[in-house]
From TrEMBL, chain A:
UniProt-annotated stretches for the region Disordered: 38-59
Family in the record: Belongs to the Aux/IAA family.
Keyword Transcription regulation (UniProt): yes
Pfam families: AUX_IAA (PF02309)
Predominant localisation class: nucleus
Biological processes, Gene Ontology terms: auxin-activated signaling pathway; regulation of DNA-templated transcription
GO molecular function, one term: transcription cis-regulatory region binding
Subcellular location(s) per record: Nucleus
Protein name per Swiss-Prot or TrEMBL: Auxin-responsive protein
Subunit annotation: Homodimers and heterodimers.
Automatic annotation (TrEMBL), chain B:
Species in which this protein is naturally found: Brassica oleracea var. oleracea
GO biological process, one term: auxin-activated signaling pathway
Name of this chain's protein: F-box domain-containing protein
Classification via SUPFAM superfamilies: RNI-like
UniProt key word Nucleus: yes
GO molecular function: auxin binding
Pfam families, alphabetized: F-box_5, LRR_6, Transp_inhibit
UniProt domain F-box: residue ranges: 4-45
Pathway assigned in UniProt: Protein modification; protein ubiquitination
Intracellular or extracellular location(s): Nucleus
Leader sequence residues: none
Alphabetical UniProt keywords: Auxin signaling pathway, Developmental protein, Nucleus, Ubl conjugation pathway
GO cellular component: nucleus; SCF ubiquitin ligase complex
Length: 172, 578
C-alpha cells in the first residue's frame, strides 16, 4: 500500500521520542510518549485505517441520497463510536459500543486494547482488585462508574469512556 | 343497459368505486358519461396542476371526497425547492364558493395554510375526514380551527407533515359534544400536548379505533389512554427512552392486555427494551408493525418481539434487525405481505456488519409466500440473490431496492446488477412499481422495457449508459405513469423521441441528467399540452433572457406533466415554465 511507503520514506524513527538510550531499538511501551501517531496506526488492524482514510466524500455529500425522508434522517442517532481514554496513555482509542452485547464483552475488549486488567465489579464497592476503574460520561455530562445501570441504558447514554487510575478515583 | 332509467344505472354505478373503473365507464357513451359524472362522489387527482378546481366542480357536482397530490415524489428527498408550489388554498376557495358538500379531503405533498384550514372548517357543514400526508405550511392554530368548527369530524390523520407547533390548546378545541372521532393521528407534532384534554377527548370517543400520539406523550399518559380506549385497533405510541419502574410497567402491561382488538402498532421513536416487552401479550394479534423509528434498539430485542408476531402482514423495520432477524421473520411471519427495511446508519460512520444484506432479502422471499411489496435498503447485493428472490416471489407488485452506495456492483462478481433486476421484471408479471439501484447499464432498461408490462412507476438513480436506456423504457412500458430519474446519462434524444408518450403519463422528472435547455424548449414547443418546468436555484434565474448559446446548457432539474389547464400562475422565480 502506498501508505506504508510514505511512512517508510519519512524515516520517522529519527524523530521518535523514546525512553532509553539513543541507538537502542526496543518496542516502546504504551505509557511512553510517542510523537508519532502514525506508527501506532500502522500496527493496527484495518478498522482504524478506514478511519484514517475515509470512503470517498461522494457518499455523504450527494443531495437527497440515500432516498430517505428527512424525518427519518433526524431520528437516526448516527454513531455509537465513543472515545476511550486511559490515564497515562498518550493517545485515545475509539470503540463501537454496538459491537458489544454486555459489560463483559466491553471490559474484555478494553482490557485487550490497553493491556491491563479491570477488577471485579460489585455494586457495593465498584471495581476491586486492580489499579484501574472504568468510568464514562453520560448524556448529562456526569462521570459515572461503568456497570451500575443495565447495558442498554449504558450503551445509549455513554458519550465517552475513561479508564481512571485508582489513585485518581478515590471515591470508587 | 341503455334501456334502464338513469336512476337504475346510477345505482349500478354506485357499486363501482375504483377510480380507474369509473373513468372507464365515463368513456362508454355520452349518457353514461353524464350519469357517471353527476353521481361521482370520490375523485382522485394525482397532480393538482393537471386540472383546476373550477373544471373539477363543473364536471362532478356531487363531489364528496377529494384526493389531491402536489409536489413530485423527489420532493421527499429535498430535490424540490421549498416554494415550488402545490397550494391547496385555491381548491378550498373554489369548493366553498360552489357550495360543494365536501366531506373528505386527502392531501399529499401540498402546501396548506392555517387560512386554508380555517376556511375549510367553516365551509363544509358535513365535513368528516381530513388526511394530510407530507404536507407543510400550517400550524397547530389551523388544527384548532378544524377541531373547533368541524362538528362531524371523524378523522384527523396527520402523517409526516411539517407542522409548526405553537404548543397551544388545539386539543382543547374539540367541543365536549364531539364524540364521533374514529381516527386521530398527531404523531408528527413535535411539541407537548395538553394531556388532560387528550384523555378527555379519548374518553368521550367510544368509536375511536385509531390513535397515534406524538413523542411527548409519556408512558403513564399512554397507559391511561389505553385504559379508556380498549377498543383501539391501531395505536401509535410516543417516545420511551427510559426503562419504566416496576409499577408503571405493570400498569402498562395491564392496559395493553385489555386491548384485544389491537392490530396495528407504530411510533416508538425511542423505546427502552423493557417498554417494548410490555407489548408481548398482544403481538400475536398484530397485522401491522412499524418499529422503523426506533433507532437505538438493538437487533436482538427486535428479533424477540417479532418472534411473537405470527399474524403480521405489514412490517416496517430498521436494518439493524440484520439478516438473522429477517430469517426469524421469514420463519415466523408467514402472512407477511409488505416489508420495509430502512437504513439506520445514514452517515456510514460505522463498520456495521450487522445490517441486512442480500442474505436477509433471500430469506424473507423464501419464507413469506404472500410477500408482494418490498422496500429494502442495504449496503450490498448480488445478481444471484435477486434471481433467487424472483424465483421465490413472482407476485411482487412493488419492488424497491436501494443499495446505499451509488453504482455499487454485485459484490461477489463485480458485475452490474442488470441480470438480477432483469430476473425480477421477468418473473413478476404484475409488477407496478420498481426502484433500481447499484451498478446498472442500459441492459437493465432493455429488460424493463421488454418484460415490465404492468409497470406504472419507475425510479432510476445513477444508472444507465446512453439514451438507449431511457428509450427502452419509454417504448416498452405501455402502462408507465410516473418516471423519475436522477444522475443518469439520458439526454435530449431520449426526451424528444416520442413526445406523444407523455400524453399517457402523469409526469416525468429528470435531474442531473444530460438534457439541455434547448431540448426542453423544443419539447415544450412540440407539446403545448405539457407543462415543462425547469427548476433552477442558481442566482441567475431568468432563463428566458439568456441568449441562444445557452441552449446547450444542461438543465439541472426538469419536471414535466400533462395538463388541460396550461401553465400554472403560481410558480416561484426558481421555476421556469417553457
Amino acid at each position: 500500500m502506498a501508505y506504508e511507503e510514505v511512512i517508510n520514506e519519512l524515516n520517522l524513527k529519527d524523530t521518535e521520542l523514546r525512553l532509553g538510550l539513543p541507538g537502542t531499538d526496543e518496542q516502546a511501551e504504551v505509557s511512553c510518549v510517542k510523537s508519532n501517531k502514525r506508527q501506532f496506526h500502522q500496527s493496527n488492524d484495518e478498522h482504524n485505517l478506514k478511519e484514517e482514510y475515509p470512503p470517498p466524500p461522494a457518499k455523504t455529500q450527494i443531495v437527497g441520497w440515500p432516498p430517505v425522508r428527512s424525518n427519518r434522517k433526524n431520528n437516526n442517532k448516527s454513531v455509537s463510536y465513543v472515545k476511550v481514554s486511559m490515564d497515562g496513555a498518550p493517545y485515545l482509542r475509539k470503540i463501537d459500543l454496538k459491537m458489544y452485547k454486555n459489560y463483559h464483552e466491553l471490559l474484555k475488549a478494553l482490557e485487550n486494547m490497553f493491556k491491563f486488567t479491570i477488577g471485579e465489579y460489585s455494586e457495593r464497592e465498584g471495581y476491586k482488585g486492580s489499579g484501574f476503574v472504568p468510568t464514562y460520561e453520560d448524556k448529562d455530562g456526569d462521570w459515572m462508574l461503568v456497570g451500575d445501570v443495565p447495558w442498554d441504558m449504558f450503551s445509549s447514554s455513554c458519550q465517552k469512556l475513561r479508564i481512571m487510575k485508582r489513585s485518581e478515583a478515590p471515591a470508587f | 343497459m341503455n334501456y334502464f332509467p338513469d336512476e337504475v344505472i346510477e345505482h349500478i354505478f354506485d357499486f363501482i368505486s375504483s377510480h380507474k373503473d369509473r373513468n372507464s365507464i365515463s368513456l362508454v357513451s355520452k349518457s353514461w358519461h353524464k350519469i357517471e359524472r353527476c353521481s361521482r362522489k370520490r375523485v382522485f387527482i394525482g397532480n393538482c396542476y393537471a386540472i383546476n378546481p373550477e373544471r373539477l366542480i363543473e364536471r362532478f357536482p356531487s363531489l364528496r371526497s377529494l384526493t389531491l397530490k402536489g409536489k413530485p415524489h423527489f420532493a421527499d428527498f429535498n430535490l424540490v425547492p421549498h416554494e415550488w408550489g402545490g397550494f391547496v388554498h385555491p381548491w378550498i376557495v373554489a369548493l366553498a364558493k360552489a357550495r360543494v358538500g365536501l366531506q373528505e379531503l386527502r392531501l399529499k405533498r401540498m402546501v396548506v395554510s392555517d387560512e386554508s384550514l380555517e376556511l375549510l372548517s367553516r365551509s363544509f357543514a358535513s365535513f368528516k375526514s381530513l388526511v394530510l400526508v407530507s404536507c407543510e405550511g400550517f400550524t397547530t392554530d389551523g388544527l384548532a380551527s378544524v377541531a373547533a368548527n368541524c362538528r362531524h369530524l371523524r378523522e384527523l390523520d396527520l402523517q409526516e407533515n411539517e407542522i409548526e407547533d405553537h404548543r397551544g390548546q388545539w386539543l382543547n378545541c374539540f367541543p365536549e359534544s364531539s364524540t364521533a372521532l374514529t381516527s386521530l393521528n398527531f404523531s408528527c407534532l413535535k411539541g407537548e400536548t395538553n394531556l388532560a384534554a387528550l384523555e378527555r377527548l379519548v374518553a368521550r370517543s367510544p368509536n375511536l379505533e385509531s390513535l397515534k400520539v406524538n413523542r411527548a406523550v409519556p408512558l403513564d399518559a399512554l397507559t391511561r389512554l389505553m385504559s379508556c380506549a380498549p377498543q383501539l385497533v391501531d395505536l401509535g405510541v410516543g417516545s420511551y427512552e427510559n426503562e419504566p419502574d416496576q409499577e408503571s410497567f405493570m400498569k402498562l402491561m395491564a392496559a395493553i392486555k385489555k386491548c384485544t382488538e389491537l392490530r396495528s402498532l407504530s411510533g416508538f421513536s425511542e423505546v427502552a427494551p423493557l417498554c417494548l416487552s410490555a407489548f408481548y401479550p398482544i403481538c400475536q394479534n398484530l397485522t401491522s408493525l412499524n418499529l422503523s423509528y426506533a433507532a437505538e434498539i438493538q437487533g436482538n430485542h427486535l428479533i424477540r418481539f417479532i418472534q411473537f408476531c405470527k399474524r403480521l402482514q405489514r412490517l416496517w423495520i430498521l436494518d439493524s434487525i440484520g439478516d438473522k432477524g429477517l430469517e426469524v421473520g421469514a420463519s415466523t411471519c408467514k402472512e407477511l405481505q409488505e416489508l420495509r427495511v430502512f437504513p439506520s446508519d445514514l452517515h456510514d460512520e460505522e463498520d456495521n456488519d450487522t445490517a441486512v444484506t442480500e442474505i436477509g432479502l433471500v430469506a424473507i422471499s423464501a419464507g413469506c409466500p404472500k410477500l408482494h411489496s418490498i422496500l429494502y435498503f442495504c449496503k450490498q447485493m448480488t445478481n444471484a440473490a435477486l434471481i433467487t428472490v424472483a424465483k421465490n416471489c413472482p407476485n411482487f407488485i412493488r419492488f424497491r431496492l436501494c443499495i446505499l452506495e451509488p453504482n455499487k456492483p454485485d459484490h461477489t462478481t463485480s458485475q452490474s446488477l442488470d441480470e438480477g433486476f432483469g430476473a425480477i421484471v421477468q418473473a413478476c408479471k404484475g409488477l407496478r412499481r420498481l426502484s433500481v439501484s447499484g451498478l446498472l447499464t442500459d441492459k437493465v432498461f432493455l429488460y424493463i422495457g421488454m418484460y415490465a408490462e404492468q409497470l406504472e412507476m419507475l425510479s432510476i438513480a445513477f444508472a444507465g449508459d446512453t439514451d438507449k436506456g431511457m428509450l427502452y423504457v419509454l417504448n416498452g412500458c405501455k402502462k408507465m405513469r410516473k418516471l423519475e430519474i436522477r444522475d443518469s446519462p439520458f439526454g435530449n434524444a431520449a426526451l424528444l423521441a416520442d413526445v406523444d408518450k407523455y400524453r399517457t403519463m402523469r409526469s416525468l422528472w429528470m435531474s442531473s441528467c444530460e438534457v439541455t435547455l434547448g431540448g426542453c424548449k423544443r419539447l415544450a414547443r412540440n407539446a403545448p399540452w405539457l407543462n415543462v418546468e425547469i427548476i433552477n436555484e442558481n442566482e441567475n434565474n431568468d432563463l428566458m433572457e439568456r441568449n441562444e448559446e445557452d441552449e446547450r446548457e444542461k438543465v439541472d432539474r426538469l419536471y414535466l406533466y400533462r395538463t388541460v389547464v396550461g401553465a400554472r400562475k403560481d410558480a416561484p422565480p426558481c421555476v421556469t415554465i417553457l
